[in-house]
Amino acid sequence: MTLRTSLAAETATLLADLGAAPPTDGALEVRSPIDGRPIGWVAEDDPAGAAAKIAAAQAAFPAWRDTPAPIRGQLVRLFGEELRSHKAALGRLVTIECGKILSEGLGEVQEMIDICDFAVGLSRQLHGLTIASERPDHRMMESWHPLGPVGIISAFNFPVAVWAWNAALALVCGDPVIWKPSEKTPLTALACQALFQRAAARFGHAPENLSSVLIGGGEIGAALVDHPGVPLVSATGSTRMGRAVAPRLAARFARAILELGGNNGAIVCPSADVDLTVRAVAFAAMGTAGQRCTTLRRLFVHDAAYDVLLPRLKAAYASVAVGSPLDERTLVGPLIDAAAFEAMQAALREAEALGGAVTGGPREESESPDAFYVRPALVELPEQAGPVLQETFAPILYVMRFSELGEAIRLHNAVGQGLSSSIFTSDLREAELFLSARGSDCGIANVNIGPSGAEIGGAFGGEKETGGGRESGSDAWKAYMRRATNTINFGRALPLAQGVRFDL
Ligand code: NAD
Description:
Aldehyde Dehydrogenase, Chain A, domain 1; binds nicotinamide-adenine-dinucleotide; 22 strands; Aldehyde Dehydrogenase, Chain A, domain 2; seven-stranded mixed beta sheet; about 40% helix
């Protein structure tokens, strides 16, 4: 049996295990980056079909809004149970469809389970404040109400977890969800939808069409963006996509959660623990073949640490196991497609032209001409310029020297994106400076761990061209609800605020 038939056949088996329809019917061809060959065909939605699904989600809203939040939480609990039972199959399908290594495919499903657990607890904690009123016999408070259907647009590189971050919160907040996954990874989306339907059937009284999936590219995503019946769109993807989506949402005064590109940096200080730093940088820069929004792309190394750290890092780059993500020994799987490979090579050529010394980067051998495996690249550069200022979605780490921490922080912040960041140091003052208002300008700032691999408990997202949205833990749920401020007069007089008189 060839690799092609085995992957396509395994995909069909996994989808059947997960309760999804066979992927044999439709115009959208899905390829596995493992060998670059087709693993399925699915039907695309057209604009009329998308409008019908959005209308169906609107119809589901009143009944779901009126279901008490802790009862809504029970549906999310059941969905989490389905994910627990099917973690192995869904995790493997993630690996086959987007190419991340198996432990990361499974980790993505674990992240879905974790956010479901979080959301179940949250369903009993959608708290508002009580507020002191300046008027006698008055009370003020905040109420949080469901918002309406939430559109979720997701990227290929986290094909299931990003949806779950949004969907688990939106569902306990009382909102139906409509998901437009990446056109590169529709099969995992259809599998998640099938698991959700199982949970809904066990729950027994969820309204029809509480969750739906729109299959297609940017045009179908635009149907969600432009529809007046979708009060919130959470869009994850490139800054280019965000630039297209944000003004259209603003034009109709819809809410946006934008989770866009990153160009994440780390600073290595003289007191850094070298062993720990090498491991953290290796995972953050090479893991997921450089295809995480939080991938480490820029490393600023103090002169005093440079000559110790760089040989260790280069050795890791030379020896890291690149290959099929289904092989347990592999740490770096394939790039998603040929375009990603070409973008990587173009960035490396540009860096060389700027005086960069490149280690790694070439294509690695594989059985298939349509698969793109690369040796991760480390580029030593004299200054931060050219391709360093952009996100190239591939495993390239640009390394630059510094001699003074203030200057390193300035350079760290001198890019358009503001997602995630790290400092490696044993010096309390350096760590606290990096975390302070004068330090990293990112939505995520870490000490002695890399910028990638967030837990669900914190709010996730970034500043500047990363879009400013927050998802997942902490109080990110507030974006999925509308806040009403209530003032209640339990007296017989009608005092006006600010001492205003209006005596009739
Ligand atoms: P992409 O921008 O090509 O596509 C992302 C999604 O947006 C897809 O579903 C796509 O169909 C849709 N889309 C594209 N144009 C659209 C439009 N005009 N209107 C509506 N929808 C549109 O991104 P990708 O290549 O799939 O993913 C990689 C990018 O995503 C990287 O830039 C990465 O940093 C970013 N990303 C960000 C986060 C985050 O949380 N900040 C997480 C994952 C990925």
